[in-house]
């Protein structure tokens, strides 16, 4: 058997974890087990390269091998933390270990690499996909249905859904309505460039009880920013989030913010630091 010939036979049983004869409360044994799994995974790309030399170029088999090798490499990058180069304090090389936290755009399933983690709220998480549905508001008939990754914004591919509706019902869509999830600037720009009318509420800005960015008046031409207390600044810094078209950034002086009566509504930082917008 191919797997046995490459010392990979354990992956074709009922469960690699279930058949592992180790104590799962033993951190050292668990680290050794993980290291062996990663070592096997690291061998597979080289095996794949050798196999590719034996298959016809452009064949379905070649495509499948390349896609599988790329998926494996991505899984290793997102889930495994490699030890630093060189021996550790004990004189031995460190062990690979699982990364803490979630990698952005993390692949959830090897059987369906398009699946992603999604959030219904700050505490409710789900894995997989979410549906995008277009409905005619008068007849309440569903005109088109799309599928989005769980971590995609609701407005992603909204214009595609409109065009799919037109193709399905044979009528041009005169106006598209959506909730505030469709009211962002990017989606509005996409519809405007395509000559479409989009009606959607602008999302209410939240900043944990303090002034949001929208409370500040920014003049890109003059390079200035006015705060709700009437202070004006044009101080340029590299790490502020409000940037003008030349790549500069604006932040208020710490002295001005320290003496401001509205400081508690501006920022939570201690004195000696100015508000960046």
Descriptive notes:
This protein has 277 residues and is of the alpha+beta class. Helices cover 30% and strands 15% of the residues. It has 3 domains: 2-98, no CATH class; 116-191, no CATH class; 213-266, no CATH class. The chain is extended and about 75 Å long. It is built from 8 helices and 10 strands. A hairpin with a 6-residue loop joins strand 4 (125-135) and strand 5 (142-149). A 3-stranded antiparallel β-sheet has the order 3-4-5. It has a 3-stranded antiparallel β-sheet with strand order 8-9-10, with no helix packed on it.
- Main sheet: strand order: 3-4-5
Give the class from helix and strand content and strand pairing: alpha+beta
Secondary-structure element order, as H and E? Answer: HHHHEEEEEHEHEEEEHH
Largest beta sheet, briefly? 3 strands, antiparallel
Give the rounded overall mean pLDDT: 83
Number of helices: 8
Number of DSSP-assigned strands: 10
Radius of gyration: 27 Å
The separation of the N and C termini measures: 63 Å
* Backbone shape: extended
- The tally of domains stands at 3
Q: pLDDT below 50 for ≥5 consecutive residues: which ranges?
A: 86-93, 239-246
Work out the strand percent.
5-15%
Helix content: 25-40%
């Amino acid at each position: 058997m191919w797997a046995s010939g490459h010392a990979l036979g354990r992956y074709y049983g009922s469960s690699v974890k279930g058949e592992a004869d180790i104590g799962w409360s033993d951190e050292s044994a668990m680290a050794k087990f993980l290291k062996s799994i990663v070592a096997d995974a690291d061998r597979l790309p080289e095996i794949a390269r050798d196999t590719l030399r034996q298959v016809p170029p452009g064949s379905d088999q070649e495509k499948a091998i390349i896609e599988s090798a790329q998926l494996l490499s991505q899984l290793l990058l997102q889930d495994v933390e490699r030890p630093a180069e060189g021996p550790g304090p004990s004189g031995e090389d460190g062990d690979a270990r699982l990364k803490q936290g979630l990698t952005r755009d993390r692949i959830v399933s090897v059987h369906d690499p398009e699946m992603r983690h999604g959030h219904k709220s700050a505490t409710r998480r789900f894995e997989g996909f979410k549906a995008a549905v277009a409905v005619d508001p008068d007849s309440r008939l569903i005109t088109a249905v799309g599928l989005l990754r769980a971590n995609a914004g609701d407005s992603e591919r909204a214009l595609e859904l409109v065009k799919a509706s037109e193709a399905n019902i044979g009528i041009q869509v005169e106006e598209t309505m959506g909730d505030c999830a469709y009211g962002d600037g990017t989606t509005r720009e996409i519809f405007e460039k395509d000559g479409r009318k989009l009606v959607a509420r602008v999302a209410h800005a939240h900043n944990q009880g303090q002034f949001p960015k929208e409370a500040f008046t920014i003049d890109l031409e003059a390079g200035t920013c006015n705060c709700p207390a009437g202070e004006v600044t044009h101080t340029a810094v590299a790490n502020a989030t409000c940037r003008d078209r030349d790549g500069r950034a604006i932040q208020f002086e710490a002295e001005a913010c320290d003496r401001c009566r509205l400081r508690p509504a501006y920022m939570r930082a201690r004195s000696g630091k100015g508000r960046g917008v």
